[in-house]
Design brief:
The protein is α+β, with helices and mostly antiparallel strands. The protein folds into 2 domains: about 120 residues, Immunoglobulin-like, CATH 2.60.40; about 110 residues, Cytochrome Bc1 Complex, Chain D, domain 2. Helix content is about 35%, strand content about 20%. The strands form 2 sheets. The chain has a 5-stranded mixed beta sheet with strand order 3-2-1-5-8. The relative contact order is 0.11.
Length: about 290
């Protein structure tokens, strides 16, 4: 087949444009193997960070204890993302419920976090310090309460942090598996910590929730009169068709026992119900 002069010119222009576009695209969608990969999961209204190589997970919520007079009011979190400098980092973005967007302007360009889909960005942080960002996709009434805080540290400090997190996780697992009967005071103290980290963003620290999407737990039939087995089932397996996620893979037996006890006795619920880690272990076995 012989191409006419006009066709050759058009083809030449197309190829010249494609060549330039390919170069630009290769800069935006970097394919160099990463040294560190983080899965960033947006949820109403918190961030979960999975450090893929080290099997570490962090849940990051708004720090609600900061006064309005402070510079970091609504801009700080309970758990920062810790990252090493001079390291090629890949971020994998997704969400559990609605559209979110993890955006730290000084580190990476904005990209949506979409339920059931993975988007990718990457960064190399050159300077140690604190970097702040915010969810950049309107995700509901709590959109303004999803700050992002990244602390960049030296590679040596990062390695020490990873070792510390692994040691803490091992100790927590051993504690949760121990043959111990926990007191009400112990369960309530531990349960409040777990609740504020995992549940408070949706059901609120007051237990009043944000109906209808996030029902109240204070004074509800679910937390005051339902069977404990049903309560455990919801926490472990979630509830399909709702925003209630499954926490069975993220919380150990002691944490689930404690938060169940807390929800059934906090805010004036006062059922007197206590749940022990052994009961959670049995509930997990029943699900298999």
């Amino acid at each position: 087949m012989v191409l006419g002069f006009g066709a050759v010119v058009v083809l030449g222009i197309d190829l010249s444009i494609a060549g330039k576009a390919t170069k630009v695209f290769s800069l935006v969608e970097d394919t160099t193997p990463p040294e560190l990969t983080l899965k960033v999961i947006g949820s109403q209204w918190k961030w979960t960070y999975d450090y893929m190589e080290d099997d570490i997970q962090i849940v990051s919520n708004l720090d609600r204890d900061i006064a309005e007079s402070e510079d970091t009011y609504l801009r700080d979190v309970d758990n920062k993302m810790i990252l090493p400098v001079d390291t090629r980092i890949r971020f994998l973005h997704t969400a559990t419920d609605v559209l979110h967007a993890w955006w730290v302007p000084a580190l990476a360009y904005k990209k949506d976090a979409i339920p059931g889909y993975i988007n990718e960005t990457w960064a190399i942080i050159e300077k140690e310090g604190i970097y702040r960002g915010q969810c950049a996709e309107i995700c509901g009434t709590g959109h303004a309460f999803m700050p992002i805080v990244v602390e960049a540290v030296s590679k040596e400090k990062y390695a020490a942090w990873v070792d510390g997190k692994k040691e803490a996780a091992t100790a927590a697992l051993a504690e949760a598996s121990a043959d111990k009967t926990w007191s009400m005071d112990e369960l309530m103290a531990r349960g409040e910590q777990v609740y504020n980290t995992a549940c408070g963003a949706c059901h609120q620290p007051t237990g009043l929730g944000l109906p209808p999407a996030f029902p109240a737990l204070k004074g509800s039939a679910f937390t005051t009169t339902s069977e404990i087995s049903a309560h455990l089932d919801i926490i472990i397996n979630g509830k399909p068709g709702t925003a209630m996620a499954a926490w069975g893979a993220q919380l150990n037996d002691l944490e689930i026992a404690a938060v169940t006890t807390y929800e059934r006795n906090a805010w004036g619920n006062d059922t007197g119900d206590m749940v022990q880690p052994a009961e959670v272990k049995a509930a997990r076995s029943n699900n298999k």
